[in-house]
Each structure stands twice: as structure tokens, then as C-alpha cells.
Amino acid sequence: MIRNGTHTSELNYDQLRSAFDKSASLAAAARMLSRERYNALANRQTWRPLPDGPICVAQFIPILSMDPRSKIDINWVHENFTMLMFNDWGGASRAFNLDGVVAYSGSPERVGAYTQVYRNGMMEAVRMGGHSFMERPVVPSTTVSTFYRDAISKYVHFAKQAYLAGPIMVTAALIGVDGHEFGIGGNFFLAPLRFQIALT
Predict the structure, then answer these.
(1) Which one-letter DSSP state was computed for residue 50?
(2) Residue in 153, 171, 127 with CA at minimum distance from that of residue 31
(3) Fewer CB in a 10 Å sphere around the end CB: N or C, the chain?
(4) pLDDT in tens, 124-177
């Protein structure tokens, strides 16, 4: 059964199979795009240069955004960019780019964090993840966990406001951790980081 406004209609077997095949193809495209973006970020291909060190990333890809017809109103996003700010930014600016709209903390030449909203409704939040503790490079656990939690909360709010429907692929990654330790707790119990972390 498919609903169109207040009307419903039965799907036959071929229509049902076609709908599932299309959904599976869109999901595969979303996974491929996510991998491509992570590879680019691992090579420091960010919107603007970030400070050296680990990068925290949270991606939100609506499955329907892989349909070429999927678009959102980027002018509305530009006007309401404060919903893309994180609490620790202290202020933000925004700009149009070829991909859509980006809100950022810092100067355009060197940012500490940014949130990119793409024209198809995908969102990618990025921030520096490193810190120096007693002259040792550290990734603070509370900082990165707060970032991922807040990113999810912000996208849920954004998706509701932008009327984005359907399933969404959520991924998170901590990239470029070589030579860093994981600082756990307020006094930083340090644990070695030996590999990148990625969750879907």
C-alpha cells in the first residue's frame, strides 16, 4: 500500500519489488558517498583548513537525498543558520558555496568547526578533535562525545524544520588520531589511540 496525501492505493508485486530495489540502490549510493567523504577528510580536504590533529565528523544522509530530484531550500538554511551552531562555538558566520550552505566558527581562512548542509538535505558536521594536555597530544573524550550527541540532536531538529522524511543514514568518525591518546574523565586517564574510529 502507498499513501499519497489522504489517498491510499494497493501496490502490485512488480511495483512493490521496484520500490524496494530503488530504496536499496539509494542506500548503496549513500554508503558510497559517505566513504568518499571520509576519504577526502582523511586527506585534510575540508571546507577550510582546520588546525592539525584529529578531526571529528558526523554525517547525516537522508536516503531519499540520493535521488537527483531531491532538493532543499538553501536560502531558508542560510537565513536560519544559527540552528547549525554548536554551543561551544561562541558565535558563527555562514556562507553559500557550490555544495549548499556552510555555518562555521572562526575565520574563513582557518576554522575550528563547521557544519555543511548540502543542496540535497545531507548534513556534515566537522570539528577539530585534538588538545594538548601536559604537552601530550590528547583527544578529550568528553569533547568528542558531546560533539556527536549534539550533532544528532541538531540534525533531528533540522530535519523536522526542513520537512525531510524517510530513513536517514547516520555515521560518525574520528580521523587522524596517530600519535594521540584518548583522555578519559575530568583528570584525563590517558589511553592509547591506535586506529581510526568510524560508526554507522
Answers:
(1) P
(2) 171
(3) N
(4) 999 988 766 667 788 888 888 899 999 999 999 999 998 888 888 999 999 988
Q: Which residue has the cell 543542496?
A: 119
The residue assigned the cell 491510499 is 8
DSSP characters over 6-17: TEEE---HHHHH
In SS3 terms, 61-108 reads as EEHHHHCCCCCCCHHHHHHCHHHHCCCCCCCCEEEEECCEEEEEEEEC
15 is written with which cell numbers? 511495483
Instruction: Report, in this order, helix, strand and coil percent for the chain, each rounded to 5.
Output: 30, 35, 35
Cell numbers for 16: 512493490
Distance separating alpha carbons of residues 115 and 101, to the nearest angstrom: 8
pTM: 0.80
State whether residue 156 is helix, strand or coil: helix
d(C-alpha 14, C-alpha 108), whole Å: 51
